[in-house]
Amino acid sequence: MRTFYGVLVTDGRRGAVTGGRLVSGIAGHKIYMSNINGSNLEQIAKTLSLVSWHMFTILLIVGAGTLVCIAYEPAMALMAYPIILVNAGGALMFLAVGLGGHGQLLRLPGMYLMSGTAILAWLGIS
Question: For residues 3 and 96, is the Cβ–Cβ distance under 8 A?
Answer without folding.
Answer: no
